[in-house]
Amino acid sequence: MSTKADGLLARLASQRAREVGATLAKQTSINAPGMINLASGTPDFATPAHIAEAGQRAIAEGKTVYTAWAGMPALREAIADQLQREKGLNVDPRHEVLVTAGSQAAMMTVTLALLDPGDEVLVPTPFYDEYRRDIMLAGATMIPIPTRLEANFEVDPAAIERAVTPRTKAMILISPSNPTGGVIERSTLEQIAAIAQRHDLLVIWDELYERFTYDGFQHVSLATLPGMWERTIIINGFSKCYGMTGWRIGYVAARREICDALLPITHGMTICAPSMAQYAALAAITGPTDWFDAILAEYDRRRRLWMQALDSMGLPYGRPRGAYYVMPHIGSTGLTSQRFAQLLREEANVMIGGAGGSTDPFNEGFVRCSLALPYTQLEQGLERMAAVVRKYKG
Prior knowledge:
Blueprint: H1 3-30, E1 36-37, H2 49-60, H3 73-87, E2 97-100, H4 103-114, E3 120-125, H5 130-137, E4 141-146, H6 157-163, E5 168-174, H7 186-198, E6 202-206, E7 232-237, E8 250-253, H8 256-270, H9 275-286, H10 291-313, E9 325-326, H11 337-348, E10 350-351, E11 369-370, H12 375-393
Helix pairs in contact: 2-9, 3-9, 4-5, 4-8, 10-12, 11-12
């Protein structure tokens, strides 16, 4: 085996060892008596009844066999209809939509299909660590693009352009963002679109949290900007906005040549997305949406509680205008992200997260915090967290 391959495997093994340890600690913490989880990426509302019933009905009717590799035609048509209705995109459901077993499988499929060893991929930091893992699995290199808390973690187009080299093939962008809660404004997207076109770059565009927006922000899909559909790969899914994390259902929307390249990898990984989940997703995308209004209002109430609590603790943060995360900087405690998370678990029975793992050097000093738990539990968790912050800041 080549030295280059050995090096890649060694890096993956080292990272995986850290992740296994962190996962075991997390699972132990979640199950500890009285533990309050302020780090969860799982929305705390149940799958709406009409969606769950559609999945149950599919099982009862024996609709549990393989579908087409790309997904059921009816679901692909519904996704294309939604993209046209909500974003004005004219997408061919036969060739430009690929249903996957979750958006995470979509991301891995895209990176494995489009990246080659030696390619560089630009990723704003802090970031969701699956991006780095998938880039590494493809043999490519992730190039971090730092963002600033003072700018609410919105990526700077000038920083993107400075990072472009002849080896740059793509960038991965997410808005609204996991882990920061940041959003990318239209004016910024327009500058990014110009850079992508000027340097002939692909953009992997993750909009999994598109319905979670606050402060009057309107989500804008990068693929809708002039000249961008041809070079944008949309990744989306049903986990977050429909409360369907365990159903494992997502999709890719991109031009035909790209989707054709993804099909063999999708088949090799899963053959197709779970059939009953596809029927549930069809009900989600064609059914009522007004049920989400109350959920968004509640998440906004929790967001405001987080900001009020962090202001009282004296911890700076980027104002979260999307998703359901807030990312404070805890440097004033004198602790590392990992140590801060450990002490919260041990002294306060509170679990908190780092983006991409608390040992991630790109995110050092920050912790990822979640809105996805009931308000009263959030209040209790924040009171406990404040006591730890006071102790170590003092």
